[in-house]
């Protein structure tokens, strides 16, 4: 399945953070979502074959990478208090409309 | 306008009874997919069921079925024979021809013994 690390993280405002994800084997698409408390997940961006091919309404300080070995990263610079959330990584086998996302357990980020 | 609307913040159901979780969606695309996910307190989003916009029949997966009413733009999830393990947050989601999924705000389901 999809694995994420770390599970929990506490950072200070202004710092930078890197979250990691290992996609399900054979899945060539990975996307990241932010889930604030009491809300549904919000799309941050998607990578397909190591290139970003979709981005939600998030500022450039949210960036990512996808590697050939089914792993990916989400980087957030200049952390703000509102960045506190559960960050979910998801992979899918293909990009078709009927292809579900398979999620990891998430990383809970707290910014103080 | 919200792409996905879930109007029930919380629902209660007696064990072994059926429950319907409501979802309405908004899109002008003729092609789209509708999904339901379950999120237990552990945080992982678990895929439950999928319905395509061109599918003529309602989707079913075990105890889950999707009541798809295209003209009304609704995609309600029906859980039959509820179990204690069904207690969780449930999210409705839609995917259009772009790459992102749009999620609703979720419904918290509690199964009462």
Question: What this model shows, in words?
Answer:
The complex is a heterodimer of chains A (112) and B (113). In chain A, 0% of the residues lie in helices and 52% in strands. Chain A has no helices and eleven strands. In chain A, the strands form two sheets. In chain A, strands 2, 4, 5, 6, 9, 10 and 11 form a seven-stranded mixed beta sheet that branches. A four-stranded antiparallel beta sheet of chain A has the order 1-3-8-7, with no helix packed on it. In chain B, the strands form three sheets. In chain B, strands 2, 5, 6, 10, 11 and 12 form a six-stranded mixed beta sheet that branches. In chain B, strands 3-9-8-7 form a four-stranded antiparallel beta sheet, with no helix packed on it. A two-stranded antiparallel sheet of chain B has the order 1-4. Chain B is globular. The mean pLDDT of chain B is 95. The N and C termini of chain B lie far apart (38 Å). Chain B contains no helices and twelve strands. Chain A binds chain B through residues 31, 33, 38-43, 46, 48, 53-54, 56, 86, 88, 90, 95, 97-98, 100-106, 108, and chain B through 4, 31-33, 35, 37, 42-47, 50, 52-53, 91, 93, 95-106.
Quick structural overview:
The complex is a heterodimer of chains A (112) and B (113). Chain A has 112 residues and is mainly β. Chain A contains no helices and 11 strands.
Topology of this protein?
The complex is a heterodimer of chains A (112) and B (113).
Chain A: E1 3-5, E2 8-11, E3 17-22, E4 29-35, E5 42-48, E6 51-55, E7 62-66, E8 71-76, E9 85-92, E10 102-103, E11 107-111
Parallel strand pairs in A: 2-11
Antiparallel strand pairs in A: 1-3, 3-8, 4-5, 4-9, 5-6, 7-8, 9-10, 9-11
Chain B: E1 4-5, E2 10-14, E3 19-21, E4 24-25, E5 33-39, E6 46-52, E7 60-61, E8 64-69, E9 74-79, E10 88-95, E11 101-103, E12 107-112
Parallel strand pairs in B: 2-12
Antiparallel strand pairs in B: 1-4, 3-9, 5-6, 5-10, 7-8, 8-9, 10-11, 10-12
């Amino acid at each position: 399945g999809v694995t994420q690390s770390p599970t929990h993280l506490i950072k200070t405002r202004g710092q930078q953070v890197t979250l990691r994800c290992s996609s399900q084997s054979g899945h060539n698409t990975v996307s990241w979502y932010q889930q604030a408390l009491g809300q549904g997940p919000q799309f941050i961006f998607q990578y397909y074959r190591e290139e970003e091919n979709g981005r939600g309404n998030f500022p450039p300080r949210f960036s990512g990478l996808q590697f050939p070995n089914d792993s990916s990263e989400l980087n957030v610079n200049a952390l703000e208090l509102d960045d506190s959330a559960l960050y979910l990584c998801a992979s899918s086998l293909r990009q078709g409309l009927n292809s579900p996302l398979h999620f990891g357990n998430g990383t809970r980020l707290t910014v103080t | 306008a919200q792409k996905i609307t879930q109007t029930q913040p919380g629902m209660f159901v007696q064990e072994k009874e059926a429950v319907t979780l409501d979802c309405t969606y908004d899109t002008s695309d003729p092609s789209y997919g509708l999904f339901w996910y379950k999120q237990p307190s552990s945080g992982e989003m678990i895929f439950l069921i999928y319905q395509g916009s061109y599918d003529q029949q309602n989707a079913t997966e075990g105890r889950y079925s999707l009541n798809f009413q295209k003209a009304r733009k609704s995609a309600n999830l029906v859980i039959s024979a509820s179990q204690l393990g069904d207690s969780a947050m449930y999210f409705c989601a839609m995917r259009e021809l772009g790459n992102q999924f749009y999620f609703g705000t979720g419904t918290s389901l509690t199964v009462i013994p």
